[in-house]
Amino acid sequence: MPTAFDFPGGIYPPERKRRSQQSALLEAPLPRQVILPLHQHSGQPSTPCVNEGDVVKVGSIIARQEGMISSHLHASISGVVAKISATQITIDSDGRDDWQRLPAMNWQLSEPPALLERLNDSGIVGLGGAGFPTHIKARVMEQHSIHTLVINAAECEPYITADDLTLRHYAGDVLEGAQLIAKLCGARHIVIGIEDNKPEAIEALREALPLSQPLIVQLNVIPTRYPSGGERQLIRKLLNLNVPSGGLPADVGVVCHNPGTLLACLQAVRDGQPLISRVVTLTGDAITCPGNRWVRLGTSIQELLEQVGLNRAQLSHVIQGGPMMGSPLLTLATPVTKLTNCLIAATFDELPQAPAELPCIRCGECESVCPVALLPQQLHWYARAKDDARMERYHLFDCIECGACSYVCPSHIPLVDDYRDAKNRLRHQRIETLKAEHAKHRFEFRQARIAREEAEKQARREARQSQNRRTPPATAPANSGEVDLRGLRIAHAAAKASVKKAEKTLARVAQEDPKQSLEDLEIQLATAQENFRAADLQLAQARKQQAAEAPAPAQNKESL
Amino acid sequence: MSMMQASQTGSGNTAAKRPSTANIMRWVIIATLPGIVTMSYFFGLGVLSNMLLAAAFGMAFEAAILRLRKRPICVTLNDSSALLTGILLGVSLPPASPWWLIGVGMVAAIIVAKQLYGGLGHNPFNPAMVGYALLLVSFPTYMTLWAPPQGAVPSDLWAQISGSLPTAQLDSLSGATPLDAFKHKSEAMLASEFWAAQPLPSGTLAAWRLIAIAWLAGGLLLLVKRIISWHIPVAMLSSMMLLATLFYLNNPSHAGSPLLHLVTGATLFGAFFIATDPVSAATSRRGKLIYGAGIGALIMIIRSVGGYPDAVAFAVLLMNLCVPLLDLYSVPRPTGHAARGGRR
């Protein structure tokens, strides 16, 4: 029975963590080739900034962020860029592993803007699964007052032990990373939430806790129950705060990060090492030596699994992520990305295929396990009937897709798949209904771009003229300068405010629903930025003009 | 989607598998065994013949309709739901009912109440109870002939089942359930006088008590195996006992005692095997409590004020009608939604 300090529902699936917990965290062998997809994070894909044949080092930026919610991509091995396609960059290794690090920084002495820039330059995104750019998340304090940083070390999904092993080996570094992020977002408390099935990680944290400063870190061991690692569930459990529906943890003054992300943040700042590798759990009964490995991003999953003894005869399927929320891989010829936390090579007996679906008998088991207290069964009927209005009224978008309902369903109905489909359909519909609006936004963007280019041209032209003549343009009316300047200053401030506003909306929407298309909002932001640049140029020009006009009377006075 | 299923990979570190839908049906069938055995002990082979006939009709009708609907037959029959419906209707009918009576009941249960609405999971009414209610209003003579406890093989068993027993002889078999007899006692007679007159053949009340305990045992098995939740039986029995006590205190000389209402008739059978049918019951926990309490209250109201001595079937069907409304108004508040204001 849930207590006041608890979330409703929850399940106790077999944990199956033991196999990958036993061995130490090792480095995977350096791959001969890496394939780096341009879209390894939420938001817009990055844009390549290298050419085929370029020589790159480990840590060189090979693709730049596109728009605000996006992330840089770095070469994870040294070598030659072999191929650039629309979706990915392939690098062939030269086997030397030459590094190109950013200068080391001391986070305690550095200013927050410099630290944020470093996180952005290092391509850090949330490594727990959502892949949200960390520097955007760290900027929440611009709009919210944050009191607590929660380290989400619950790792409640079966099989996965990546955070467990990270904490055993890097407890001190993870805590330091947390102090760094706490400084950035202005948090005054740090709380770690960890499930009680990780005694060694808890021990490592206990040892590291007294050394962590300046903030005191509170360790909170919670009972093992899926999905206690859900952001909202954990915040409820640790702090007894309810994140409002459709809101963010920041709305109740909390920011959540996973240990892997915090470690990556510290490494980016302290060592100048961008995000080029991550800890991946390799497990499943079809693997002979399971465990956790530091894997370079872009390593082929097939090679990786073969290195730990993949038994092809027994293999049924490979799952990326956990068995509850992950997805089966269609092909093993895919690379490890920033979001790959676990690979399960399952045998047929281990994770049997679900038997044929039977009709729902309304047993209500799904309702009793739902951690959000939704009515999964009701949603199922409406999803099958494509009754989208009803689905929204039954809070479809509050579903965290944890899979607890699918897990307990005696009729083996893939409930979460239905909900995902329905959500996608609704997102699509929203875009369709706003199509005219979006077209308007694109048009406005083009207008703004043209205006900005015009302003730039004007500025260049006048700069050239003033260079040629070395006299202020005679055409300017004598007293219009002053009036213009005031108007321009107001326009400039308004443009700046609208950029801020667009950034705020974008950051919020991107975090609320990571799967939503952000294109329209990015265009609105770009429009605001173009307007701002144009206003900036015009203002600068007007000031120059005024400066050029103002001294003239003074000179006259002197000459008199 | 979840690649793990409680029915496949087990739950918790004990890895005990949770039952699938077909296994839920089978567990319910297993849980009816104590009741069936006890009933057969007191009322003879007629109970088993009812069940076998009803189950056979049920499977046959289901297969026929599935064939017409061009749906997979084997997979669906394998879920054992038609079998269960047959068993539940079979034990509700008077022992050794004629075959055509059972056939008509199963047509109503499987074809009308279940398949015409779309099959398993889509039926708004409890199929077995639709069959029972139809028979009760259409063939009251046959439905109230409940022979007193007798030997394992009643003398006219075959003649009864085949329906070839002359109508005149029917009366000689007639008996009544204790509730029926009590309901139809004359107005002038006090309850104490009625029982003192020993209106029923000896051992009838004791037999019904034991049968009630057997159904209770089966129900507890379902609760322990977590096939059913406690909400509906507890709510139903509580509201029923509360009303029975009130009626009894109001008029102890004429109303039956709460204990009489609890152990006779289909009360316990209904509480654990009929009202808990998940398809036709409310789904949310709050809804289940209201649904169960409603059934309990309706049973007592019909028994005390209405025209039927038992009334489990009518009470369940009436509450089935209320389920969509209950589901609509007992939607739990998801986490993260404000406690007050706005739509719940």
Automatic annotation (TrEMBL), chain A:
* Names of required cofactors: [4Fe-4S] cluster
Q: Which Pfam families does the entry mention? A: Complex1_51K (PF01512), Fer4_8 (PF13183), RnfC_N (PF13375)
Q: Which domain of life is it from?
A: Bacteria
For membrane topology, the record states: Peripheral membrane protein
Query: Disordered: where is this region?
Result: 1-22, 454-485
Which positions in this protein are listed as binding [4Fe-4S] cluster 1?
A: 360, 363, 366, 409
| Sequence positions that bind [4Fe-4S] cluster 2 | 370, 399, 402, 405
Predominantly, its location class is membrane
Q: Does the keyword Repeat apply?
A: yes
Is Cytoplasm tagged as a keyword?
no
Q: Which UniProt keywords apply?
A: 4Fe-4S, Cell inner membrane, Cell membrane, Coiled coil, Electron transport, Iron, Iron-sulfur, Membrane, Metal-binding, Repeat, Translocase, Transport
Q: Where is the composition biased (Basic and acidic residues)?
A: 454-464
Q: Which residues form a coiled coil?
A: 492-545
How does it associate, per the subunit comment? Answer: The complex is composed of six subunits: RnfA, RnfB, RnfC, RnfD, RnfE and RnfG.
The family this protein is said to belong to: Belongs to the 4Fe4S bacterial-type ferredoxin family. RnfC subfamily.
The name this protein goes by in its record:
Ion-translocating oxidoreductase complex subunit C
Source organism per entry reads: Halomonas casei
Automatic annotation (TrEMBL), chain B:
Tell me the keywords, alphabetical order. Answer: Cell inner membrane, Cell membrane, Electron transport, Flavoprotein, FMN, Membrane, Phosphoprotein, Translocase, Transmembrane, Transmembrane helix, Transport
Give the cofactors, semicolon-separated. Answer: FMN
Q: Where in the cell is it found?
A: Cell inner membrane
What broad class describes the main subcellular location of this protein?
A: membrane
Q: Where are the transmembrane segments?
A: 24-42, 99-117, 129-147, 205-223, 230-249, 255-276, 288-305, 311-331
Pfam families, sorted: NQR2_RnfD_RnfE
Q: Which residues carry this modification: FMN phosphoryl threonine?
A: 177
So which domain of life are we looking at?
Answer: Bacteria
EC supergroup of this enzyme? translocase
Q: What is its EC number?
A: 7.-.-.-
Q: How does it sit in the membrane?
A: Multi-pass membrane protein
Quaternary organization: The complex is composed of six subunits: RnfA, RnfB, RnfC, RnfD, RnfE and RnfG.
PANTHER family assigned: ELECTRON TRANSPORT COMPLEX PROTEIN RNFD, ION-TRANSLOCATING OXIDOREDUCTASE COMPLEX SUBUNIT D
Q: Please give the function described in this protein's UniProt entry.
A: Part of a membrane-bound complex that couples electron transfer with translocation of ions across the membrane.
The record's comment on protein family reads:
Belongs to the NqrB/RnfD family.
Please identify the protein, giving its name as recorded. Answer: Ion-translocating oxidoreductase complex subunit D
UniProt organism field: Halomonas casei
Report which gene this protein is encoded by.
rnfD
